[in-house]
Amino acid sequence: MALIGGKEYPEHLYYDLDNQVWYEPLADGSIRAGFTPIAIELAGDVLVFTPKRVGKPFEAQRSFATIECGKWIGAARAAFDGTVVAANEALERRPKLLNDDAFGVGWMLLVRAATDAWRDRLVTGSQVAPAFAGWIAAEAYKGRTE
Amino acid sequence: MIRKLLIVLVNTDPRNPEELGAPFYHAAVAAAMDYEVDVICAATAGKLMRKGVAQAIHIKPGHAKTVYDWIRDAHNNGARFWACPANLDLFDMTEADLIPECKGLMGAAAMLQNIMSDDYRVLTY
Hints:
- The complex is a heterodimer.
- Chain A is α+β, with helices and mostly antiparallel strands.
- Chain A has one domain: CATH 2.40.50.100.
- In chain A, 21% of the residues lie in helices and 34% in strands.
- In chain A, the strands form three sheets. Chain A has a six-stranded antiparallel beta sheet with strand order 3-4-5-11-10-7.
- In chain A, strand 8 and strand 9 form a beta hairpin.
- The longest helix of chain A has 10 residues.
- The termini of chain A are far apart.
- Chain B is an alpha/beta fold.
- Chain B has one domain: DsrEFH-like (Hypothetical Protein Ychn, Chain: A).
- Helices cover 30% and strands 20% of the residues of chain B.
- Chain B is built from four helices and five strands.
- In chain B, helix 1 runs parallel beside helix 2.
- The interface between A and B is small, with 12 and 11 residues.
């Protein structure tokens, strides 16, 4: 685990720092995706979670879900091309799960990547802590919320 | 599939702040969903494109977020804002008076062309 902002970030996950989305490859070849706790902390209380519809394709850097929050309205942007396989229905019913448990019951989507190279530009393992430290130091998040 | 949304503020009056939440909120969400969003502020709503006006209006009294913050949210998500050329004369403005989020002027003909085209869906407020 990497300790970031007082929260434990699992090192087996793959992180897209630009979009603050994590990915977890599953045994069946699908990939679970969710927002990082730091992204949700910046966004505020999540009021609505709207995933892209199941079966719809998405492109890298384009929206595959939308969240409406107290402080911020914005998109979860994908790190790679793919297709939405499923959405977290519990999160649609109770968006605050994202605030409560972003790595657990607050996951957002199951997706399939268009290519096997989906994780090439993502951060994982021992790279997680220094990468997040650099992201925080660069204040890259300011453009998202100001 | 239609990807473009034109939001027309023509009946919205800045003197009633409660009217100002929905159009910009919808613009912010639609842009976050990667729809191409154009927002034109015409008639009395055109005042909102003038520097300082939206900054001074709070949708909810006592709430920190101003109408300008909502405009910036939508703009940050990719929505484009347009002023009405007729408003410049009506409100004694020049293009230099417009907020930086305003991309420029959308004339009535351009707006109507978009409305009548098959490329756009239109929401009016």
